[in-house]
Amino acid sequence: MKTTFLAAIFILSINTFNLTAQENKRNPYNLNIISSPGVYAGLIHTDSLKQLLDLQRAVPGIVMDIRYATGNNFTHKKVYTSPRAFVRLKVARALWAVQKELSTHGLGLKVYDAYRPYAATLLFWDIIHDTAFVASPAAGSRHNRGCAVDVSLVSLKTGKELKMPTPFDDFTAKASADYQQIPEEAKLNRKLLINTMAKFRFIVYPTEWWHFDYPGWKDYELMDLSFEELDKVKNR
To answer: What fold is seen in the domain 53-234?
Structure first.
């Protein structure tokens, strides 16, 4: 009996160790990260503003070009399982207003990325240790909070992207929001994007003309839920 009891304790200890190791690998900096659909469901039940909305449904006409759902990105890997974009409720409302404003110019938004699970931030940091272009997992990303978007401009008539200073995820000085040695057309298009986003409170990231943060992001938790897990919460 004593041997059986000790064996059970040993197995329990091993299982606990394995679970702890898995959690540490998923959250090596011991941050306050929501990785449970149940916890997220409780959160949005208490505060509906914290729900993450599917942008394609929330903003009619918005164009999706979710690069991390393909191999066409700097990792050369398919990071997401589906080409979707999610943001917090207030961010979605602001993007709806941006889209409406742009439509008066015959233009619209193209989205490269929005909410990003924390696991992706860990992956990106493993590849590029440069906070000018990749968020440090020690603090987490504003993308992890559902309060950042990577966007460009498209013509509503043709569906084609307007000329910009660089392609998405260009890790050079040319991607900076104020870089001047670029064609005038690209400069004007960048200015239109930045000014229109600013009109609805979005702030451009200095080293990436495509990245915009929404104010109040500190009020939102870091998240590590997949798109499929978000859907399960929504469908409860």
So the answer is: Muramoyl-pentapeptide Carboxypeptidase; domain 2 (3.30.1380)
